[in-house]
Amino acid sequence: MTAKAACSDFLHFFRSWVSNPLRVAAIAPSGDSLARIMTSEIAALDGPIIELGPGTGVFTRALLARGVSEADLTLIEYGPEFISSLQARFPTARVLQMDAAHLADADIFEGEPVGAVVSGLPLLSMSPRKIVSILAGAFAYMRPGGAVYQFT
């Protein structure tokens, strides 16, 4: 990612935080170093993969760098301000605008269960009921031996 794109992502993210700090819960997007650490145990064979709260796509880019196929990614984003840029940056990934708390009821996967869920959702700013709904939804789609990678 170029410095200009990184600056643009920061401004986009910061504006989103200013407009709704409880939903975004961070003033800046996660960085490349954190994304590499978060995805270091994930391999292409772990696909399909769900990413919760991809925001500007920093974890998404790290997953692609690890060899995960873009077509194996389902990006669940609540914020409408991030949807169009995610769709433009990752055109073969499935980008869904929805609340991750409704994941279990969404019936988004047929066939092969997911091998990993990557999440940068601000769980510590959410109610226990919402956290349980998000995690239950994530685990409902996961295959045996799958893993959840969470940064809060």
Describe this structure in words.
The chain is α/β, with parallel strands linked by helices. The protein is built from 7 helices and 5 strands; from the N terminus they run αααβαβαβαβαβ. The protein has a 5-stranded parallel β-sheet with strand order 3-2-1-4-5. Strand 1, helix 4 and strand 2 (73-77) form a beta-alpha-beta unit. The two termini are 23 Å apart.
Task: Give a quick rundown of the structure.
The protein has 152 residues and is α/β, with parallel strands linked by helices. It has helices at residues 3-19, 21-24, 32-38, 58-65, 80-89, 103-106, 128-140; strands at residues 49-52, 73-77, 94-97, 114-119, 142-150.
User: If you consult CATH, what is the topology?
Assistant: Rossmann fold
CATH architecture: 3-Layer(aba) Sandwich
Structural class by secondary-structure content:
alpha/beta
How confident is the prediction overall: mean pLDDT? 84
CATH superfamily: Vaccinia Virus protein VP39
* Low-pLDDT stretches: 23-28
Molecular shape: globular
Number of DSSP helical runs: 7
Into which percentage range does the β-strand content fall? 15-25%
Tell me the Rg in angstroms: 14 Å
Order of strands across the main sheet: 3-2-1-4-5
Q: State the helicity in percent bands.
A: 40-55%
Structural domains: how many: 1
Number of strands: 5
**Largest beta-sheet characterization:** 5 strands, parallel
